[in-house]
Amino acid sequence: MTDTTASSIPERRAPSQAWWNAVNAWLLLLPAAVLLVAFTHYPILATIRHSLFITKRNGTEVFVGLDSYQAMEADPIFWKALINNFWFALGTVPTSIALALVMAIWVNRNMRGRGFLRLAYFTPTVLPMIAVANIWLFFYTPDYGLLDQLRGLFGLGGWNWLGDPSTVMGCLIVMVIWKEAGFFMIFYLAALQQLSPDLEEAASIEGASRWYTFRRITFPLLMPTTLFVAINAVINSFKLVDHLVIMTKGGPNNASTLLLYYIYEVAFTFQDSSYAATLTVVLLLLLSAVALVKFGYLDRRIHYQ
Amino acid sequence: MSAITLNRVSKFWGAMRAVDDVSLTADEGSLLVLLGPSGCGKSTTLRLIAGLEEADAGTISIGGADVTHLTPAQRKISMVFQSYALFPHLSVAENIVFGLRVRRVSRAERDGRLKRVADIVGLSHLLERKPSQLSGGQRQRVALGRAIIAEARICLMDEPLSNLDAKLRHEMRTEIRTLQQRLGMTMVYVTHDQTEAMTMADRVVLMRDGRIEQNGSPEELYNRPATAFTARFIGSPPMNLVRQGDRLIGVRPEHVQIVADGDRAARVKAVEHLGADSIVLCEIDGQPISVRLEGFSKVQSGEDVRLAWDAAHEHRFDSTSEVRLDDIANEDRLAASAR
Fold first, then answer.
1. What is the 3-state secondary structure (H, E, C) of chain B?
2. Subunit contact B89:A198, Cβ cutoff 8 A
3. What is the pLDDT of residues A53-108, one digit of tens each?
4. β partners of residue B158
5. pLDDT digits over A173-201, tens only?
């Protein structure tokens, strides 16, 4: 009795059930899909379209094709911002990741004051960015800022750290490393705590030194975290705006202008929205290239547990 | 000759005595099992031998040399962890030769030894796989391979079979024992499973609350348990202990018989049929007692039966100290504890 009813129901309902399953799945995905399309995909397409037009003063749009891109190619400030951004990324990403890893290994050990140390490392992350910028502005202030007071102890004169094209980028890099390293440390700390202590013990029984164990066991097993953190660090280095607004406004002589800050200036100070759209497309291409490298190449070469 | 000697070794976790004044000796080429319920200190004892924990008191020597303050690597031992501790990002081959690479063994020798070990543990066809692509039994073999490739004289095993299913556990038990004898290793093997201890060991050290309860051959532990704790721990089902005045009378289930003219009345509570034999669970004056009968027993639960056993098969224990009574040494211990 029970056997026949149990077997006949799925047979009868098989096609309609599959259909219903598909509808159900799409309905469940719908809210997220709507948000993604409305706030991510549509704006991207709109930006690309907008970069091919210019807006007249009376509000009408005129198709100009790749004119804006040609203007961009001839724009020295765009190239300056791009090169600045390259050096900025190179200066912040590897150092902040290395520092984060060292700090995580340091606070992962059993020791007194561990909780306090973890909190201290994480503090830069929880501070509001405007406050952070103001603190560092004080450090870098000529003559009576912290840095110059320290120089004064050694009899050195004042230095306009943020006002000199040769030091402004270095100053920003140091500040961003200070801010990012603590944040990345949390990810490394979480990953380290996922690792079984047995692995380290097994390695120590085989006679592996601490450095050898780190190089052959711990670091490779942390690679997924390293990749995640690296991608975030690169993206963050392109997204930095707020500190620049407070501290340098891109100066002096565009020595600290980064790509997104330049876009912000073009769009809201110079009110040239179609050129801003053109620059945004470049930024989008750069970030998609980073994402492609991650998903297409690196993910396949890394061991995920 | 003794390969491993522990002399009055202790390890404390704060106020807890994880290992409390333990002395034991493992003979060269023998398999010593550290047996006990969870939390009895057997794994800590093993970690002390391995050097993964440092002893708070006492000395440990391996092959006659004092190793109490040496690092794990300096002790020249190998170890198999309960979790296997395989490196998940390395292939089977790389896992096995990890220690050889650390010691910079030449490539030719590494390959030769890997081939030999892979044959021994039956992994030759899986060397390129990652641990996550292996079954539980295969992972166990990788761990075993990594332990034997170093050709250390001493191999420590921390509950190596506890993550396997019953059938595989039985197979690996025999395999590990054969391997140990073939390679002539001295093995210290931690388990909470008394069957593993009984079937594999040359010597069993039964531990309880950080102390050694009894140290002897499997046969001694079975036939002459020094305490009621040992009697209850060894054997499946364990020894029956019936309270009589200030004594505990112990009888193995296979020594109890159901006979018409038996001198004790009992009621059958349940019957377990195991195939070759049956376990009849009875009750005498509210105390449980199990009887092992050959074949498929026809006794029904609820039935009243009469039980009998030969007095020669009785073990007597003091009911408060639980110490065996016919043992002169134990009489002294009893007297000491009474003072």
1. CEEEEEEEEEEEECCEEEEEEEEEEEECCCEEEEECCCCCCHHHHHHHHHCCCCCCEEEEEECCEECCCCCCHHHCEEEECCCCCCCCCCCHHHHHCHHHHHCCCCHHHHHHHHHHHHHHHCCHHHCCCCHHHCCHHHHHHHHHHHHHHCCCCEEEEECCCCCCCHHHHHHHHHHHHHHHHHHCCEEEEEECCHHHHHHHCCEEEEEECCEEEEEECHHHHHHCCCEHHHHHHCCCCCCEEEEECCEEEEECHHHCEECCCCCEEEEEEEEEECCCEEEEEEEECCEEEEEEEECCCCCCCCCEEEEECCHHHCEEEECCCCEECCCHHHHHHHHHHHC
2. no
3. 887 777 788 888 888 888 888 888 899 999 999 999 999 999 999 999 998 998 88
4. B190
5. 998 899 889 899 999 999 999 898 999 99
Flag whether pLDDT at B1 surpasses 60: no
Rg of chain B's alpha carbons, rounded to an integer? 23
Q: Could you say which of B85, B89, B102 has the minimum Cβ distance to residue A208?
A: B102
Shortest distance, CA A99 to any CA of chain B (angstroms)? 24
Q: Do B72 and A220 touch (CB under 8 A)?
A: no
Residue B56 confidence (pLDDT)? 93
What's the complex ipTM? 0.82
Q: Are B68 and B49 in contact (CB under 8 A)?
A: no
Place of tokens 């404390």: B12
**Contact flag B88-A303 (C-beta cutoff 8 Å):** yes
Q: How far is B128 from chain A (nearest CA, A)?
A: 15
The closest of A294, A223, A303 to B94, measured between CA atoms, is A303
| Interface contact flag, B78 A205, Cβ < 8 Å | yes
Per-residue model confidence as pLDDT tens digits over B238-289 = 999 998 888 899 999 999 999 888 888 899 999 999 888 999 999 988 889 9
Q: Does the beta-carbon distance from A303 to B130 stay under 8 Å? A: yes
**Chain B residues within an 8 Å CB radius of A206:** 73, 98-99, 102, 146, 150
**Cβ of B83 and A196 within 8 Å?**
yes
DSSP A54: E
Q: Which of B78, B88, B102 sits opposite A212 (nearest CB)?
A: B102
Domain annotation for chain A: domains and CATH numbers = 2-50 (no CATH), 68-301 (1.10.3720.10)
Q: Which domains does chain B have, with CATH numbers?
A: 2-222 (3.40.50.300), 227-338 (2.40.50.140)
User: Residue B187: CA atoms inside 13 Å, Cβ hemisphere, count?
Assistant: 28
| pLDDT recorded at residue B333 | 56
Q: Give B 257-286 residues with CB within 8 A of chain A.
A: none
Give the chain B residue nearest A207 (alpha carbons).
B73
